[in-house]
Amino acid sequence: MSKIARRLAALGLAATMVGSLAACGGNSSDSQTADGGNNITIKFTWWGNQSRHDYTQKILDKYTELHPNVKFEAIPAGWDGYFDKLSTQAASGSMPDIVQMDYLYLTTYANNNSIADLQPYVDDGTIDVSQIADNVVDAGKVDKKLAGIVGGTGTVAIGYNPEVFKEAGIEEPNQDGSAWTWDEFVETAKTIKKKTGKYGICSGVADDTNIFNYWVRSHGEQLFSDDNKSLGYDDDQILVDYLDMWKDLMDCDAEPDPDEYTQIQSLGQEAGPVVTGDAAMLNENNNYASKMSSANPNLKVTIPPVSDINKKAIWNKPSYMLCISEKSKVKKEAAEFINWFINSEESNDIMMAERGVPSPQNIRDHLLDSGKLNEKQQEMFEYADQVVEYTGDTPDPDPMGISEVSKSLQDCAYSALEAAEKFRKEANEILERNN
């Protein structure tokens, strides 16, 4: 039995126990509370691993220490299923007061009026965005509505385990400071599989619209049209080549197939194959090595493959945003907390850039000058500077219907020729219907 298989088997009992415990738990009220006095409770939900959950709770405790009348109902979750649950809550009007939002879904929640316009709280000084670059602030806008406050930024990256490269007897990628090509990336993954028997790349990204967006941009095109009513590229060979590349890697077992990857996901990030040394690389963000440092302090990140057609395919993406539910009864207090969470040294000294490079310039300077950043956190800041020459404009937030578009890509992700035509037809219908 493989190491991964043993871990999966071990998780079976644990999963059963967790499910049983969850079934025994009581249900909390769906309504946000602001009693007749000064005491309030703010519901706050976010995704992440256990390390993020732990330090976020410390941040909440610190805020309550500073503001004794404010209590929190913390609702941490993993990434998988987070937005399925949020969608259900939004539909029922029971969404938590503060929601950690991903750029992928911002347009959907803004346009269905699930999240409040935060511009009034900027205008009255409750939320200070003076230290955040205008283009980063604008990334939180949908049709002139300030739907979310960008707390951190990140860029796509390849996360990797240098020990697996050493085991394979090959150099770590991009050691000379230059970016590599897609062909070099594929050959590296295959060589690692051949020499170690381990996955060269373990991402399951053939159906990931974020990575496909990067691929499309690297071919000089954009994923969506300017009006968001159709795909932004005309040549279906772009998708065919993308799917063929990943199928080639799966065929030689340098990348897990969809069923294998579904099982691997159940291990959790800290026990993932790259962390444990059972795989060499994965597609991630520039904060990968930092956020996984407690599980493996030796992980690194590097520039993703670059195309000669467009070397500026990377973009600065909001790593997270904070939004307020339109149904919240404590919007003002939630806005005050968001301001403190993003702008205060106290909060960021606990967070230590784990959610991405902080968007306020003064907080970035504070952390760099503080001497508190560890090696991996410093590398994350340095990476943001290294990729400047490969960085282009940030695309608009993904359009309405993105979840359906992602599902369409997933459904056809492993049979290339017919899939490209099927994806174009379905995606255009979805985008036309939703925008």
TrEMBL record:
InterPro entries: Bact_solute-bd_prot1 (IPR050490), SBP (IPR006059). Pfam families: SBP_bac_1 (PF01547). Residues 1-22 form the signal peptide. It comes from the Bacteria. Keywords: Signal. PANTHER family: ABC TRANSPORTER SUBSTRATE-BINDING PROTEIN YESO-RELATED (PTHR43649:SF11), ARABINOSE-BINDING PROTEIN-RELATED (PTHR43649). This is Sugar ABC transporter substrate-binding protein. It comes from Agathobacter rectalis. The lineage of its organism: Bacteria, Bacillati, Bacillota, Clostridia, Lachnospirales.
